[in-house]
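Notebook, p. 212. Picked up where the previous page left off. The plan for this session was modest: take the two constructs that came back from the sequencing core last week, fold each one, and keep the raw output in the notebook itself so nobody has to go hunting through shared drives later. Recording the first one now, exactly as returned: residue sequence, then the structure token string.
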Amino acid sequence: MSHEHHAHDHAHDHGHAHSHSHEVDGITLAASSDASDSDLRPAEVTRRNLLRAAGIAGAVTAGMAGMTGVTPAMAETATATARSGNRATIRHWLAGDHHIHTQYSSDAMYRVIDQAQHGAAYGLDWLVITDHGGATHAKLGVDLVNPDIVAARKILKDTLIFQGLEWNIPAAEHGTVFVAPGANEVAVLKQFENDYDGSVKGASGNSPQNEALAVAGIQWLGKQVDKRRVADALFLANHPARNGIDSPHEVRAWRDADPRIAVGWEGAPGHQAAGLPAGYGPGSARGYYGNGPGPNSFPGYPAESYRSWGGFDWFTSTVGGLWDSLLAEGKPWSISANSDSHVNWGTTSRRPDGSDSASFNANGRYGDPVYAGSLNTTAGDFWPGYYSRTHVGATERSYGAVMKGLRNGRVWVDHGALVKSVDVRVVSSDGGSESLGGTLKAKKGSRISLVVTIAAQDVPNWSQFVPSLNRVDVIRGAVDPTYVTDRDTWKAPDTKVIEQTDTSGRTGTFQLRYDLGRVEEAFYVRVRGTDANRSQPGYLGASIDPAGPAIDVVGDADPWVDLWFYTNPVWVVPTR
């Protein structure tokens, strides 16, 4: 799980990755209990017989025997990693958005090509069309949208356009589900939606049976990959804290159901324009995070969890909170930032006359938008790429590489083009180095350094000003896979901000170096940055986060004056 290279290799678009490839290799397929012998090539049948005799988990886990403090849970994670592919060099940071709606959603209006053209114009390399799951979409929309996606792929040859859907997770919130393009992309999505969507199945309520259906849906997606029906599939939870109904134990259950499929959540929701003050905006809550507890909400979440903080979801923005609680178990969980585009602020289009809910239910779509003759200042969304971006480290510009990068956790996210690029590496005195999503194995007692290379923004963003990165924060947490005895735990016992660096006035490409001391126990480190316009002590107190994002004010949360970037973690594990 480690890779050695020199600490000075800090080109903007280069890194090193260990792969969690979901392009099914022979070992994964042969080890799969779902794939029958008839599904395998002769060589794979032979390999399966060998695995049955020897035991794949034992063979791979044995390779971690020299790692200090490694528990069976961490070894299991390493086993999954080792099964899934080889390390590869990051050659591109590809910006994208995995949460976008079209005229095939009952509450949206744009064509696929409208969303894709704007995404490409605003700098996105990849995007996912995720119309709402439900009876009409399952019956009509999932089929009807595909020709539009295929056509857009031909028109915008340099933009990777995935087909997905927004899953009504049984007993929980929404989530993005998408698959790699191929002959069965529609068939797999349609079967998944009909069999596992909470709305279609009447399984929205909070019950053990509905929670089990969500787990079964994730596992079913993994089986479709094992059977080679699709080359890859991913699930990420959307706006997870918005209604308080994604309980900690449900998130852990999704993650553990199939870590190849369930890889993360929106660290920052869409609808970022919703907080623009009335007069030139909707005057609502940023991200539409303006709700409170309901009958299905988890009672352990405080009132503050229903608000965004600096435009980010409380699960992610709270240092030592639920995201860190998941990471402290030593299991990957990624973040993203997306538009959730339905109807966009500042546009001049509308649905055509006669295109109402009745016609939508009958036809599975609204008519193509028409010119409205007026400016929409009450919509809460931005076009894809206009404000929020998810940057994925990829070996090449391909669908498979984007999905692999998401699974690997090679991800950082930003708002308002706060910076041009971020490179995060941990380096050990014994010569090892790893980047975002990676695990550095270092000899116990070796000294660990964190190297953060940032290219400051030098061109205007889409609100026509050049953002200024004025502070960078380093967050560190211990890894102990045994600390969670209650799966509804949402606090990490050790995670805190360990450094805050004033970067105001820094231009060009600059590097920040931090001494993390000598490694004795497993830990992770992650980084965030801000324009520092709005800060307050974190929810868990100033001793944990002295100056984190401020809670957003409902009706007065201009997103352009409160910009942040967040990175995924890098892990460090000592060896003997």
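Okay, moving on. Second construct, recorded in the same format:
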Amino acid sequence: YLPAFERVVTQARPATVMAAYNKLNGVYAGQHPWLLTTLLRQEWGFDGVAVSDWGAVNDRIAALKAGLDLQMPGNPADDAKIVQAVRDGSLDEAVVDRSAARVRAMAERWRAEPGGFDADAHHALARELAAECAVLLKNDRAVLPIGPDVRTIAVVGPFATEPRFQGGGSSRVNPTRVDVPLEEIGKLAGERTVTTDPEGADLAIVFAGLADADESEGYDRTTVELPDEQVELIRATAAAARRTAVVLSNGGVVSLEGWHDDVDAVLEGWLLGQAGGGAVADLLFGVTGPSGRLAETIPLRLQDTPAYLNFPGEQGTVRYGEGVMVGYRHYESVGRPVRYPFGHGLTYTSFAVGDLAVEATGDDSARARLTVANTGGRYGKHVVQLYVATAAGPVRRPARELRAFTKVALGPGESTTVTFDLDARAFAYWDVAEGRWLVAPGDYTVQIGENASVIVAEKTVELAGEAVARELTLDSTVGEWFAHPAVGPALMDRLTAGMTEEQRARAADHADLLRMVESLPMHQFLGFLPSPLPEETLTGLMALSRRRG
């Protein structure tokens, strides 16, 4: 989970980072020295303000010492505790001064400038961005964009007039205005008839999704299904209209089962903000082409999700048993069918990729080049997704992992060359023993995906990486001794010294016997040998394991 936060902190350089409510390995996040200081500030270089979630501070003194600068909301009783702790010497005044200086610096840096802002320009930008984010999931018979053959449009569903455009709880903001989908559709409909009766309509557009009460902060949904009344509305409309499109508004993934096959098109809008209604109208009529891609998988069942057996945990504890196999990494690694995979999204034109070339640019880096062409008849945007697949290294790797992506805009018949420079992190795994990212020597397959499930081009590159040999002791297992690249062959030579070629061959034929004792500590294995190895031999082999490079 950390790489996503790392990317934001190190590249976007945010002014603040918020500490969560929960504990991590028994320590509250808001007073966790490793999270707030070792990782966030020392490793990632964060120099802004660490702020608590609302009411998330359990022990203000411990939080200050750990690196939490700002408590939300302020609490006079906790302020008094800070003063008392400084006076009695249990809290270094320099710690308080450090946090106060960070808060003061933030206030001075982001002091509001006079003059206000251009609300119209901001709204226009919001409309543009919303259109980029919506994902066209399904478009059978090319019912979208709405063509000249569509003369009557039925717009149904409560979200058509009262749009759901933002989250609940503390994510709620005050919009400067709100675009109403029905009104925006009417503006672009021209001479077409826009009605609310789907019976016999050329196209019915159903606005469905989740209400504020269905998803908010502080509690979790217990299902991924749409409310029953929404499903009934979609199915009834699809039965009455000639063609049906569904526009969804929801913060988290919802299931499409039970109605997906009844409709012709599905536009997943998510929560598109105050200009979402206008953006949806632009997409429906083709003023803008859809180009969003799924940032999460839409499963067939809640039970298929990787965290199903681990979340929400039991007796106050959640075990992150899925490890790195979260999201699409799980579905692709176990071959689990899904409704729509990570990275899926349709456009109003077509694209083709080709001429993929991959070359190593160092021991742990590579460059990938490919061409992208618009092979359809409309202007559009395509998201090029680069995945890496490998079995290199001592840890279990997902079937593939997204390592780079970019969006290109092309007119009909146009093409362009896309280049990805892949650094070590594109190929690395986290090595627990070393406490750092490592690129293992081996083959890495660079894949270009239409989405996480559909690969359209791939090339394999060999990287020298970094061969890491673990330091061995007599407590190390027999398997670790024999797997060591330098020690393993040397140990086998010592054990077979004096044997004839025939005896060596017989020993090789009984390699399965060695597998039976691989998990034993070496000091136990030595007791099974017919003759002991000299102490100087063991000392020399352990010294050999300490040599790097």
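Notes on construct two before I forget. The mean pLDDT is 94.
Flagging for discussion at group meeting.
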